[in-house]
Amino acid sequence: MKQHIIPALRLTVACIILFIGLYPLLIFAIAQAAPAKGQGETVTVDGKTVGYQLEGQKFTADYYFWSRPSAAGYNAAGSAGSNKGPSNPSYLAEVQDRIDTFLVHNPGITKAQIPSDMITASGSGLDPDISLQGAAIQAARIAHVRNLSKEKILSLINKYTEKSINGIEKINVLKINIALDNLK
């Protein structure tokens, strides 16, 4: 029995040292080398923090680009998808409500023109980005409400379009909405 207990205790002590001591120190050191020193990438306007670059926020006013829907209510502590399948009646009702709301606020477009990222939540529920198509389809509404030309809004979209690692074009909603507020 002693021949089994001693190695088990040694392994336990080694795991405690490795996983409670060395591994967290390694992760901390890596975080300190990051641009924000492991504090996240905050977005500030006039010295005031208005959000986080990598965390989605709810924008539903007609004069802003709308965010991707969140199954977590934009709460980072509860980050998760809804786990509802595409045949779930309550999920289908949620999506239909999102479609109906989007169509009411964006007259002149059809259901078939709405990009899927504007009516379905991301896996984390905190996606800070929308697709280029999701932004472009909102341009007419924003231009009308802000009394700007649609071309000015499309130009802003082009300016704030980023490419992800896999080449997909996306737009950070918080950044472009701040740019909207700064338009003269």
Structural topology:
Blueprint: H1 2-33, E1 42-45, E2 48-52, H2 89-105, E3 129-131, H3 132-136, H4 139-146, H5 150-159, E4 161-163, E5 169-172, H6 173-182
Antiparallel strand pairs: 1-2, 3-5, 4-5
Helix pairs in contact: 4-5
Description:
There is one protein chain. By secondary structure, the protein is mainly alpha-helical. The protein has two domains: 1-39; 42-182, no CATH class. 45% of the residues lie in helices and 10% in strands. It contains six helices and five strands; from the N terminus they run αββαβαααββα. The chain has helices at 2-33, 89-105, 132-136, 139-146, 150-159, 173-182; strands at residues 42-45, 48-52, 129-131, 161-163, 169-172. The strands form two sheets. Strands 3-5-4 form a three-stranded antiparallel beta sheet. Strand 4 (161-163) and strand 5 form a beta hairpin. Helix 4 (139-146) packs across helix 5. The longest helix has 32 residues, at 2-33. It is elongated.
Kindly state the mean pLDDT as a whole number? 88
**Contiguous runs where pLDDT drops below 50 for at least 5 residues:** none
Largest sheet: 3 strands, antiparallel
Computed CA radius of gyration, to the nearest angstrom: 22 Å
User: Helices and strands, in N-to-C order?
Assistant: HEEHEHHHEEH
